[in-house]
């Protein structure tokens, strides 16, 4: 029964995200907004309910199966990918490099802006 309740919460958040996207004409996918709704709900709740945890762990356990349709799609459209191979590779490399650079810059900025914990100096002095 907790599994059904957890899956209902997940699907309900996705449904709510779809409604918000269509109602507000947002340029993001509904499941993304649904994840934000779920995150806000979990932050308000302060903990992850057992049913939701069980459902999430079950989905993560079989996550690799969700990549099968993407792999099949690559095989089905192999000729299209082959025709645009280099633009795809260049786009992937450049976008990955930009993502890493922006992530490093944001992490550096956040690390500098956070107050330093006095216990860190104590930890660094210990052998």
From TrEMBL:
UniProt keywords, alphabetically: Cell membrane, Membrane, Transmembrane, Transmembrane helix
Localisation: Cell membrane
Superkingdom of origin organism: Bacteria
Transmembrane residue ranges: 27-46, 58-78, 84-104
Bilayer topology annotation: Multi-pass membrane protein
Coiled coil segments of this chain: none
Pfam family, one: LrgA
Cellular component, GO, one term: plasma membrane
Name of the molecule in the record: CidA/LrgA family protein
Source organism: Chromohalobacter canadensis
Lineage: Bacteria, Pseudomonadati, Pseudomonadota, Gammaproteobacteria, Oceanospirillales
């Amino acid at each position: 029964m907790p599994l059904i309740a957890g899956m209902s919460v997940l699907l309900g958040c996705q449904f709510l995200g779809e409604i918000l996207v269509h109602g507000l004409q947002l340029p993001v996918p509904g499941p993304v907004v649904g994840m934000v709704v779920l995150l806000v709900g979990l932050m308000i709740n302060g903990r992850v309910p057992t049913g939701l945890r069980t459902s999430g762990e079950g989905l993560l356990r079989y996550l690799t199966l969700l990549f099968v349709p993407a792999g099949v799609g690559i095989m089905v459209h192999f000729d299209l990918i082959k025709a645009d191979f280099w633009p795809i590779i260049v786009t992937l490399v450049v976008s990955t490099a930009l993502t890493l650079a922006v992530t490093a810059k944001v992490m550096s900025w956040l690390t500098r802006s956070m107050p330093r914990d006095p216990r860190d100096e104590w930890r660094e002095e210990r052998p």
